[in-house]
Write a structure and sequence with these properties.
Number of domains: 2
CATH topology of the largest domain: Beta-lactamase
CATH architecture of the largest domain: 3-Layer(aba) Sandwich
CATH superfamily of the largest domain: DD-peptidase/beta-lactamase superfamily
Radius of gyration: 37 Å
CATH class of the largest domain: Alpha Beta
Strand content: 15-25%
Distance between the termini: 135 Å
Structural class: alpha+beta
């Protein structure tokens, strides 16, 4: 009996042993197939899920292209900076860390706490365009929820000197004014794409892969000359302050190419100080503001007269210097000139003389000549916000409007348009256009015969000599030509006798023109009301210093 009982126990044990082995074998086979499933069959899916939780696509900022002057000197450039931001939902910082962060960012602890309490958001800026060294100090605190992002900030080495012509870009590196806006498509960089690894707190651990490299914007070389720009800035700013004018503008063109060598407005602003910009100072008066040019227009009327068959020696009787026409009185500053030549009309800046001669031409002829000289249309510069001015087609000849437009009233132009018109004369009658960037396209058109342009230049040369209205524009050792302008400013109730635009447009040197300089001072003080007094000396100073810089 004992032997049989023991046999049954052994047999039962053996079966349990087999069952256990079978179960273990099934478990092993199950684990094996699960391992195969996870590592082979479902590997792509699981890896993708893992990467979605750990890897993130981020943009690599593309730096904005540089702007260089004609000599290769940087006028605008981008520097690497950092953006500091937080995820309020993950923010973890001690009171001491909060105090350090606030101090480094230049804010109060209360300000920082207010930012971190926006728990309904996952992205809150703390500061843009932070210096990388400051970002490194913040990163060393290793605060959960504190993040950094690379970006670029625009820097303008010449600051206020180039402010109006170069303009500026916004904090996102998009052009907003001036050449920054005009050339934005060329200058703007193309962002790249990279995969970064983040930890549980969304902090970047490292870069896994650069999917698409960032592409920097194009470097653009413009026609501006930083030395001439500074020269113009220095003398224009001094003239505005000296004359107590509301503002002043000046432009320097190369008449052979139409290249803008300098463009200055004063008062100005610092494009590097984003928060300090005053809207009134950002306005580029040289291209945006159209004004009645006054006597600088007589030069263009002279062109129309020569085209109509008159000659510099053609005579007109201005009498005592007054002319009544349709209830208006036209008068001269210089009285009792009597019978004088057309050349003397320009030299003495006689309103009566130019009006009488202009009335002998059809008004339509005057309109067409002004249009050929670029008035009534924006120039070819492509500068943003440029005004076209106003050039009205006169329906009747012989009226006061016909006479007034001849000496610069009833028409409005920008300073850039005036400089362009004089550049045509300086270039022997060929229109060089207006350019801020060198162009290979030759679109130059002849507006008048070369001999006619030379005649105008000879007349304008006498204006700047002793006895001429612009004698203060004289430059020692150099023959220059130009015309003064003084125009009353129209107000709500008519022209204001105490408010004028004082201007001068000149060319130097006469034999081989290198520069066209146009200047206007808006509302100078009572002692500076005439273009020959306020603006002509500025021309003389600019030319005297600029020609040596051009190695003339």
């Amino acid at each position: 009996m004992k032997i049989r009982s023991r046999h049954r126990v052994d047999q039962a044990y053996r079966w349990r042993h087999y069952v256990l082995l079978i179960l273990m074998l099934c478990l092993f086979i199950g684990l094996f197939f699960r391992l195969v499933d996870l590592t082979i069959l479902e590997r792509p899916f699981l890896q993708a899920q893992s990467e979605q939780r750990v890897l993130h696509r981020t943009l690599i900022p593309g730096p904005r292209g540089r702007i260089l002057d004609v000599q290769g000197v940087p006028l605008a450039m981008s520097t690497a900076m950092s953006t500091v931001w937080i995820n309020p939902q993950q923010w973890r910082a001690t009171a001491q860390q909060m105090s350090v962060v606030s101090k480094l960012l230049g804010h109060s602890t209360a300000w920082l706490k207010q930012r971190t309490r926006q728990i309904h958001k996952r992205f809150v800026y703390l500061k843009r365009s932070v210096d990388p060294s400051l970002a490194n100090q913040l990163a060393m605190l290793k605060i959960v929820g504190l993040n950094f992002q690379s970006e670029y900030r625009r820097h303008y080495p010449l600051g206020p000197v180039m402010a109006h012509v170069i303009g500026f870009s916004d904090i996102d590196d998009h052009g907003q004014e001036g050449l920054e806006l005009a050339l934005d498509q060329w200058l703007r960089g193309v962002p790249g794409v990279q995969l970064v690894e983040r930890d549980l707190h969304s902090n970047i651990i490292g870069v896994r892969e650069v999917r698409q490299p960032a592409q920097p914007g194009r470097t653009v070389q413009v026609t501006l000359n930083h030395q001439l720009q500074y020269t113009v800035y220095r003398h224009l700013s001094a003239a505005v302050q000296r004359s107590k004018a509301a503002w002043g503008s000046a432009i320097v063109l190369d008449p052979k190419t139409g290249h803008v060598l300098a463009m200055v407005n004063f008062p100005t602003f610092d494009p590097n100080q984003i928060n300090a910009r005053q809207p009134a100072h950002i306005r580029n008066h040289a291209v945006v503001d159209a004004f009645e040019p006054g006597s600088t227009m007589k030069t263009l009327t002279l062109v129309a007269l020569l085209k109509a068959g008159f000659q510099p020696w053609s005579q007109v009787d201005v009498g005592a210097g007054t002319l009544k026409l349709q209830g208006h009185v036209i008068h001269d500053e210089v009285k009792h000139l009597g019978r004088i030549t057309l050349k003397e009309v320009i030299r003495k800046s006689s309103n009566v003389g130019i009006a009488k001669l202009a009335l002998k031409m059809p008004a339509e002829h005057l309109y067409h000549v002004f249009e050929q000289l670029g008035l009534g249309h924006v120039t070819s510069s492509g500068f943003p916000g440029e005004s076209s001015g106003q050039l009205h087609r006169l329906t009747r000849s012989g009226g006061f409007d016909h006479a007034a437009i001849a000496y610069g009233y009833g028409i409005s132009v920008t300073l850039l348009q005036l400089a362009h018109a004089y550049a045509i004369l300086a270039n022997g009658g060929i229109d060089p256009g207006v350019h801020f960037v060198r162009t290979s396209h030759d679109l130059k058109q002849r507006v008048m015969p070369k001999r006619m342009a030379q005649q105008v230049m000879q007349v304008l040369q006498h204006v700047t000599e002793k006895g001429g209205s612009g004698f203060r524009a004289h430059v020692a050792g150099i023959h220059v030509a130009g015309k003064t302008g003084t125009a009353l400013i129209a107000g709500p109730t008519g022209y204001q006798t105490d408010a004028v635009n004082a201007s001068f447009v000149g060319i130097a040197p006469v034999q081989h023109p290198q520069l066209v300089v146009a200047i206007v001072l808006h509302k100078p003080g009572p002692s500076w009301h005439f273009g020959g007094v306020a603006a002509a000396p500025v021309f003389s100073q600019i030319v005297a210093e600029s020609l040596p810089l051009l190695k003339w």
